Amino acid sequence: MKRCPVCGSAVEPVVPLGRMPLANGFLRQEDFPSEYFFQLTLGFCEGCAMVQLVENVPREKMFHAEYPFFTASSTRMAEHFRAWAEQVARERLSAPRSFVVEIGSNDGTLLQVFATAGISHLGVEPSANVAAVAQSKGVNTVCRFFDEKAARDIVREHSEADAVLAANCFCHIQDLHTLAAGLQVLLKPKGVVIFEDPYLGDIIERVAYDQIYDEHAYYFSLASVTHWLSRHGFEIVDVQPQATHGGSMRYVVARCGELNATSQVDVQRRKETTLGLHSPETYRQLNVNVRRSRDELIELLQRLKRHATRVVGYAATSKSTTVLNYCRISTDLLEFISDTTPIKHGRFSPGMHIPVRSHKEFQAPYPDYALLFAWNHADEIIEKERAFCQAGGQWITYVPRVEVLDYATS
Ligand code: TMP
Ligand code: ZN
After folding, report:
1. Ligand 1 within 6 A of 319 CB?
2. How far apart are CA 106 and CA 134, in angstroms?
3. Which residues contact residue 92 at a Cβ distance below 8 angstroms, ignoring those fewer than 6 apart?
4. Ligand 1 midpoint to CA 325 (Å)
5. C-alpha of residue 12 to centroid of ligand 2, in Å
6. Of 122, 293, 322, 386, which is most buried, counting CB atoms within 10 Å of its CB?
7. Is residue 179 within 8 Å of 173, Cβ to Cβ?
8. Do 151 and 271 have their domain in common?
9. Is residue 233 within 8 Å of residue 185, measured between CB atoms?
10. Residue 47 CA: which ligand is closest?
């Protein structure tokens, strides 16, 4: 039985998703025999409401010099980060010699805005290849994992930070107490930590079970984040729902007593009670919904196969690994997956070993159906792929429900 790393209570396994490879472990054929697997199970801690993985994968297996995800691969996400950075610069970094740190800075998409504005900044990024891309854009980046030692080094070599930012990063950090201890060291007395991650309430409401994978050690709610951070002298002073990643939450954190909390914090707290995020029953129902989603997707793909239609996957996302392996979808149902990231081309999807090909092959010729694994970028993708629908192609999604989208005539 797993004990919750935040509060020490027993973690109840609630959604078992089976034997799973690394979500971003896109591999070559010669590496099939040594592929790494673990048991992917979502767990719920009734003690502090923290939803988390029951089994964790060692971090070096996930974040390394061949990390295949680049923030800049989505133009909408790049716009989202630009708007956020401009707001932070305006509201928090107007004083001379202000200093901002981003944890998990990836290819520097967010920090680049500060770099261009001449604001002192530093990214902390453990995956060497993406860190190198950031450095090549003139974004100051250190390649390492963030912890208390890293925080001390940053304070010694630069200064304490006015703002510490993190996007889709904290939920990847297994040792939350070490993370919070690092934030204590790094933050100025009146500084703020602002972080955003996929929001548990949206995952449950939309049955977005593909958000569950090795890298996402935690599935945060306001309740669980409050419990965790209050143990380290921090409080949440604002929450701002975001549309990104199918529903995220941005949390603004300050040292206890330093800033007044907005009324949104109470509003969100009440919403979470209504959503039942504290109740084990909610997670049992989620498991029922996840199984139903799987059954419906398999049935749809098998039906399409019987009609001899061509179905390909669109975007070899980390999320797709959970869906493909949980539903046991292989090349008999899905011909290949098209993706824009060169490092993934010629490789195979983790576990089910579906070939990943360049976007060119998506167009030549178009398939009958495309299973949209990047459903969180649906607007952006459907708009730029209008020619696919004009050629008679149809999109399949599975979030919030399994369906063929009706865009053919638009
Ligand atoms: P992620 O969901 O794991 O963050 O990865 C997104 C993947 O989707 C990444 O490999 C790039 C790919 N992608 C496309 O192939 N086409 C697109 O239009 C978009 C937005 C993403
Ligand atoms: Zn707990």
Report:
1. yes
2. 7
3. 98, 100, 162, 163, 192
4. 18
5. 10
6. 322
7. yes
8. yes
9. no
10. 2
pLDDT in tens, the chain (410 residues): 999 999 999 999 999 999 999 999 999 999 999 999 999 999 999 999 999 999 999 999 998 888 878 898 888 899 999 999 999 999 999 999 999 999 999 999 999 999 999 999 999 999 999 999 999 999 999 999 999 999 999 999 999 999 999 999 999 999 999 999 999 999 999 999 999 999 999 999 999 999 999 999 999 999 999 999 999 999 999 999 999 999 999 999 999 999 999 999 999 999 999 999 999 999 999 999 999 999 999 999 999 999 989 999 999 999 999 999 999 999 999 999 999 999 999 999 999 999 999 999 999 899 999 999 999 999 999 999 999 999 999 999 999 999 999 865 44
Task: Give the residue from 281, 316, 346 where a domain finishes.
Answer: 281
SS3 19: strand
Instruction: Give the residue carrying structure tokens 């029922």.
Output: 288
Judge whether 276 lies within some domain.
yes
Number of domains in the chain: 2
What is the span of the domain harbouring residue 104? 71-281
Two tokens, residue 370: 């495309």
In the reported structure, the alpha carbon of residue 272 is separated from the centroid of ligand 2 by a whole-number distance in angstroms of 17
- The answer to whether the CB of 81 falls within 8 A of the CB of 110 is yes
Six token digits for residue 194 = 């602002």
Q: Which residues have a Cβ under 8 Å from the Cβ of 372 and sit 6 or more positions away?
A: 314, 315, 378, 381, 395, 396, 397
CA 11 from centroid of its chain's CA atoms: 22
Q: Of 215, 249, 281, at which residue does a domain stop?
A: 281
Closest CA to 97 of 159, 187, 165, 155: 159
One domain for residues 174 and 319:
no
DSSP 29-86: GGGGGG--EEEEEEEEETTT--EEESS---HHHHSSTT----GGG-HHHHHHHHHHHH
CB-ligand 1 contact for 73 (6 Å cutoff): yes
Name the closest-CA residue to atom 4, ligand 1: 317
Q: Whose CA is nearest to atom 9 of ligand 1?
A: 317
Give the number of the atom of ligand 1 that is nearest the alpha carbon of residue 77: 20
Domain match, 122 and 200 both: yes
The domain that holds 371 is classified in CATH as 3.40.50.720
Task: Please tell me whether residues 111 and 260 are part of one structural domain.
Answer: yes
